[in-house]
Amino acid sequence: VELLQPTEIRINRAKIISLVGVTFFILNWLTGGYYYVVIYGPQVKPIIKEGPMPWAHEIVMETKEHIFLFLPFIAVLQLSVLRKYGLDLIKNKNARFSMLILLSTLIIGGLLMIFTDSIISMGARAALEILK
Amino acid sequence: MVLKQEKQFQLTSMYLATLVTILLIVTLTIGGELLPVLKTTLKNIFGHHWVGKSILATVLFLVVHFAFREKVIWDIKRWTILLAIVWILGNLAIFGFYVLHFFIK
């Protein structure tokens, strides 16, 4: 939103928000990766696979864990474009277009992560209901 | 308005690095399922195949970015469109593969 009609203040604010975004993507990578490898794999995955929605792991989780890996790199790229162009974004339509496309991929990617999380959680809950 | 050449070099190499990294992740993901030895090798070296993919992707991103810092130059809009297309196709390829894998195996 800040970059639809950029001004100096909006660009500076967007730089801070983007830096925070990249930091959280990397933290998400580390903490989510730890959870996936240490807890989800040994404890949750076998339960989902035994439940009524095995596809929640075999399709949704398998897809999610891999397409997530695209996002931190795109986030770093987006921050770099924003920092390199800076105030030039006000006049440069191509750079502004590029920023909006990169941000859209990050937003859609982030929403996909939330959506797939919900399906995987449903798969785990459905399996636990049966195992009770 | 044109950016200084040095900045354009850096951005172009970063676009290239991101693009190649996405392709590597797709290749390792689908290749690892089709060739179990690849997935096992990643697991043996890195402790988990996903950790292996994460580390290899990061290394490739850095290597390509620094290797091509002063080599390629292209219009940012074209790079962005290409990257968006590769990102969409990468998502669809991985999702489509796991759907097929689930129903065919």
The percent range for helix content of chain A is over 70%
Oligomeric state of the chains? heterodimer
Distance between the termini of chain A: 47 Å
Give the termini separation of chain B: 54 Å
Hey, roughly how much beta strand do the residues of chain A contain? under 5%
Question: Which chain pair shows the most residues in contact?
Answer: A-B, 34 and 39 residues
Order of helices and strands of chain A: HHHH
Summary of the model, kept short:
The complex is a heterodimer of chains A (132) and B (105). Chain A is mostly helical and 132 residues long.
Account of the protein in words:
The complex is a heterodimer of chains A (132) and B (105). With 132 residues, chain A is mainly α. Chain A contains 4 helices and no strands. In chain A, helix 1 (8-50) runs parallel beside helix 4 (93-131) and helix 2 (55-67) packs antiparallel against helix 4. The model of chain A has no long low-confidence stretch (mean pLDDT 92). Helices cover 85% and strands 0% of the residues of chain B. Chain B is built from 4 helices and no strands. Chain B has helices spanning 5-34, 36-46, 49-67, 76-104. Classes of the chains: A mainly alpha (132), B mainly alpha (105). At the A-B interface, helix 1, helix 2, helix 3 and helix 4 of A face helix 1, helix 3 and helix 4 of B.
Name its key features.
heterodimer; A: 132 residues; mainly alpha; 4 helices; B: 105 residues
